[in-house]
Write a structure and sequence with these properties.
Shape: globular
Structural class: alpha/beta
CATH topology of the largest domain: Quinone Oxidoreductase, Chain A, domain 1
Bound molecules: NADP nicotinamide-adenine-dinucleotide phosphate
Distance between the termini: 13 Å
Order of helices and strands: EEEHEEEEHEHEHEHEHEHEHHEHE
CATH architecture of the largest domain: Alpha-Beta Complex
Number of helices: 10
Largest sheet: 7 strands, mixed
């Protein structure tokens, strides 16, 4: 495959980034020791920003966006991967600093890759993608800080989105009492189908109360929203409970006081899926195979092609995508 199709973002004469579908050459690929025939990539929130030319994600131009992919090794200079191996890549600046997954070929350092976990197809690996990886990483962080299954309520915010949907499916399978927080009144049945035991309107958490703390409710939380929503969670966690803070869909600024931390022992756990060392990645993928029900994963996944990419990217930024969208390359 000397020529291949890919979506590439270039900086125009006006200095503004803009992306389009192009025919690319193998010689265009960046340096790296493994070349992969990409089977699937996905549209995460960050990809929505990159594909539509929003500033802040892409650091080197021109660049193929796509912060994750799955595929089959075509060439390898690494002793760890051989031709024909099925692999998955997430993070490490893929689709930000290094050419990413939204093209039919990718070339990356071997350190970006893990072998496709046993029990997953290339498509399901990307139905999970960075969003599902982050959801599992968040759940593991909560467990390490003492969260165990019980009747106590665990909140998932941005529930209809990719991270939120997968976090609900995992937590419910593990026996937690999951409360989904969403702005989409029409998607409550979808959230129940993933395993949520109740659904609340996202205004419940995002409306400032003017008090440093409110009534204790949540024994744990996966927050994909940030902003006022995260501030609301911090005010309403039970004593010694933890929040896995992984997202910013609702805004970056968090207005809080120190009181929930020093009077209730609330823990704010930062989640960064990009820089997880190899052993941690393998463990997160192992847990995904064990703890994410595949029927639920399939029910929250849609498939699209490169031709649909810009539309999906615009929709995810408007909060209109449900669950996960894989892009078939
Ligand atoms: N830390 C990491 O390593 C990491 C990795 C992956 C993703 N993330 C971040 O996690 C977040 C979610 O990613 P995703 O791929 O799941 O995106 P997504 O599919 O677009 O989901 C985001 C969800 O957030 C909610 N939302 C959107 N705009 C909102 C607003 N203005 N106020 C309140 N809620 C809003 C919506 O949920 P409802 O419709 O249900 O209300 C939306 O579905 C993003 O900020 C992303 O950058 C971080």
């Amino acid at each position: 495959m000397e020529k291949f199709k890919g979506f590439i973002v270039r900086k125009g004469a006006d200095g503004k980034p803009s992306g389009s579908l192009e025919e690319l050459s193998r010689a265009d690929l960046p340096a790296g020791d493994v070349t992969v025939a990409v089977a699937y990539s996905t549209v995460n929130y960050k990809d929505g920003l990159a594909v539509t030319g929003a500033p802040g994600v892409i650091r080197n131009f021109p660049l193929v966006p796509g912060i994750d992919f799955s595929g089959t090794v075509l060439e390898s200079q690494s002793p760890d991967y051989k031709v024909g191996d099925e692999v998955v890549a997430t993070g490490w600046g893929l689709g930000e600093k290094h050419w990413g997954g939204l093209a039919q070929l990718a070339r990356v350092p071997a350190s970006f890759l893990v072998k496709l976990p046993a029990g997953l197809s290339l498509k399901r690996a990307m139905a999970i993608g960075t969003a599902g990886f982050t959801a599992m990483q968040s759940v593991i962080a909560l467990e390490r800080h003492g969260l165990t299954p019980s009747q106590k309520e665990v909140a998932v915010t941005g529930a209809v989105g990719g991270v939120g949907s997968i976090a609900i499916a995992i937590l419910a399978k593990l026996g937690h009492n999951v409360v989904a927080s969403t702005g989409r009144a029409g998607e409550h049945n979808y959230l129940y189908s993933l395993g949520a035991s109740s659904v609340v309107d996202r205004a419940l958490l995002a409306t400032p109360s003017g008090r440093p703390m409110d009534a204790e409710r949540w024994s744990g939380a996966v927050d994909t929203v940030g902003g006022e929503t995260l501030a609301g969670l911090i005010r309403t966690m039970v004593s010694n409970a933890s929040i896995a803070a992984c997202g910013v869909a609702g805004g970056p600024n968090v207005a809080t006081t120190v009181f929930p931390f020093i009077l209730r022992g609330v823990n704010l756990l930062g989640i960064n899926s990009v820089m997880v060392p190899y052993a941690g990645r393998v463990e997160i993928w192992r847990r995904l195979v064990a703890d994410l029900p595949m029927d639920k994963l399939d029910s929250l996944t849609s498939e699209a092609g490169l031709d649909d990419l810009v539309e999906v990217a615009k929709a995810i930024l408007k909060g209109q995508v449900r669950g996960r969208t894989v892009i078939k390359l």
